[in-house]
Automatic annotation (TrEMBL), chain A:
Protein name as catalogued: NAD-reducing hydrogenase small subunit
InterPro entries linked to this entry: Hydrogenase_assoc-protein, NADH_UbQ_OxRdtase-like_20kDa, NiFe_Hase_small_N_sf
Lineage of origin: Bacteria, Pseudomonadati, Pseudomonadota, Betaproteobacteria, Rhodocyclales
Keywords of this entry: 3Fe-4S, Iron, Iron-sulfur, Metal-binding, Oxidoreductase
Domain NADH:ubiquinone oxidoreductase-like 20kDa subunit positions: 20-167
Co-factor requirement: [3Fe-4S] cluster
Statement: the UniProt record of this protein carries the keyword Magnesium: no
Pfam annotation, one family: Oxidored_q6
Entry's Gene Ontology molecular function annotations: 3 iron, 4 sulfur cluster binding; oxidoreductase activity
Native source organism of the sequence: Aromatoleum tolulyticum
Keyword Oxidoreductase: yes
Automatic annotation (TrEMBL), chain B:
Cofactor(s) this protein cannot do without: FMN
Organism this protein belongs to: Aromatoleum tolulyticum
Keyword Metal-binding included in the entry's annotation: yes
Domain NADH-ubiquinone oxidoreductase 51kDa subunit iron-sulphur binding: 474-519
Record's protein name: NAD(P)-dependent nickel-iron dehydrogenase flavin-containing subunit
Keywords assigned: 4Fe-4S, Iron, Iron-sulfur, Metal-binding
Amino acid sequence: MSDSIGMPRVRVATTSLAGCFGCHMSFLDMDERLLELAKVVEFDRSPLTDIKHCGPCDIGLIEGGVCNAENVHVLREFRRNCKTLVAVGACAINGGLPAQRNHLDLGDCLQQVYVKRDGIEEGGVPDDPELPLLLDRVHPIHEVVRVDYFIPGCPPSGDAIWKFLTDLIGGRTPRLAHPLLRFD
Amino acid sequence: MQDAERIAAQAVEHHRREPSQLLQILIETQDGIGHLPPASLTRIADLLDLPRSRVEGVAGFYSFLHMEPVGRYRILFSDNIIDRMLGSRGLMESLCRLLEVAPGEVSADGAVSVDTTSCTGMGDQGPAILVNGLAVTRLDEARVERIASLVRAGTPLADWPADYLHVDDNIRRRGALLGEDFVPGAALQAAMARGRQGWLEEVRISGLRGRGGAGFTTAVKWMACRDAPGADKVVVCNADEGEPGTFKDRVLLASQAERIFEGMTLAAWATGARQGLLYLRGEYRYLLKHLRAVLALRRAAGLLGARILGEGGFDFDIDIHLGAGAYVCGEETALLESLEGKRGTPRIRPPFPVTHGYLGRPTVVNNVETLAKTTLIAVQGGAAFAATGTPQSTGTKLLSISGDCAYPGVYEYPFGVTIEHVLEDCGAHDPQVVQVGGASGVTIAGHEFHRRIAFEDVPTAGAFMVFDGRRDPFEMARNFVHFFAHESCGFCTPCRVGTALLKGYMDKLASGKGAKMDLADIEWLDRLLKNASHCGLGSSAPNPVIDTLIKFRPAYERRLVSLDFKPAFDLDAALETARRMTGRDDPAAHLDWREEV
């Protein structure tokens, strides 16, 4: 990537919804290329910066699906602020592992975990308003907001994320060919 | 259970332990038991020396085969858009209410199940149902009430009112094929007098093209089969008329069976085939007895069997195979798979059936109407046949006309007839849309009614569905999309997943939750289906959506909410369980749709 002194840097925000941060770890797997990236990119809200809310951005990277009300708010904030929104990884694209609860009834789940479980004496479903409520099903993010691009993989490799971002920033339609395009 | 095994074993013996007869064996076994219990499948697999998974794979593929018990009366409502316009949905609700059974389920006493099925080919006399595989037409509330009481009383189907099971031909306009009397054997005699080569030459001169939709030149197909290496050639008649809205082959099978079988024999004369197979769609099973009787007559008259009409070396006979409710089997290579007793998964072409067809043998596959037309060529000559129609589409075409018109039925026109001419003849008073060629065909808007039915302009296998100003083109397209999603054979991902996604988008729009983004996604899916599918089913599945999006875009746009994006589900409602479980109702326990972005 060429040095771009004088060019406005691209603002990027990232977040993890119902995910495991594995995609963020993969992001860090870009290793020394992160320094290259830092020359053209400025980070907004992200676990990397600990900025709590997102301002106007060029690119938003979303890891994880949508499992609760807070995920919805965060996702909407990203969509409102990011020109280009990208679903990163299996959970953002398909719901992934958290979506395995989709064939179970949420009420039964909560009962089983907080009320009926062995060893629980005075159980009860937590009702603190601080806790976000769970949606009845886990959704991929494109079922809640418009999504512009998808990077598959569980997680996508650092190479795949690097290729995707350099394409996007360079003005090329992002293209992940074999072997970067993979779903596992 | 021993009974089930015995019935299965009988069916296997009846079909000479021939693995290629597997579908026929499963149909016969189910006829005896009512469904296909696991023990029957195991027994069939043992006797045929096939893996059990192969047998279960076939049983699971066809929608008229059931591995779970179904009602003693199994009632299926034809679910084409035309049946719906005639009130099928309301009648199905009435019947379910009267019989106290939920759609798609078996009644508690096991007596009856009610469900929907793809178009049964009765668009001119719907709403139609199948009762244990036999067609009942012209349903109304009175018939539904009577049917409910017949079912409750356990009256055998044979004792139902005869007019319920009567299917009309409704031939409204006769041309060269339907207008002339036919003396069985006359076409054969004429063709045999010309010799095999001379007969093929007449077919070439006639310019006859396939009537099943693709329009391939018949003489070229026959010559390719004749010249293909391999002595054991086969002629297959494709009577798997599954395209929604078409029923002209049904009328030909009922009224012109002699011509169809003679056409197959003419193909055998041209190619040297000794074996013929007619693949009859399961929905037309009520015609089986009649067709077998015609075959017997022809054998007795020396028109089938060994030394046909005394000609040494001209031996040919015809078997009938039943389908079991799979639209994709109308595709010729899927049909061959099905004839071989397999799942109806289309093959990769080439090689084409003319060199590698039924059991790998050189095979001619022709549509019912194409074969019937060859009898005209034999009797009158190729030049006389080519005198009607247009330069690239010679002869006549049968149209199956249904929908919003006074006189639905079968019409025979010379190729080149304009759509407006047809609309006037069939008494369509306020036509807005005509769907030509069925669900996979072309959507014609008012400004195109001057166009002509011909391979050069609007090609068709024969379906012609008329929609007037009361109808919604979006709902028509949505019905067809549901049809394709149901009929996708599941073999290739673009079609299996693509048709399901397309159905999801159309349903999202129908429920008033569509957004502009969805139209872009639909158009992307249309392209994906068209370009990436394994066979014609997937690549033509988006046709009604593509056409209506171009010609009736407001029908889509008026369903959109004015948002960039709208979820297909209600986010706040999705929190309801958690609200109930926690007893919360504070602001954070809700999601406001007005904040959607």
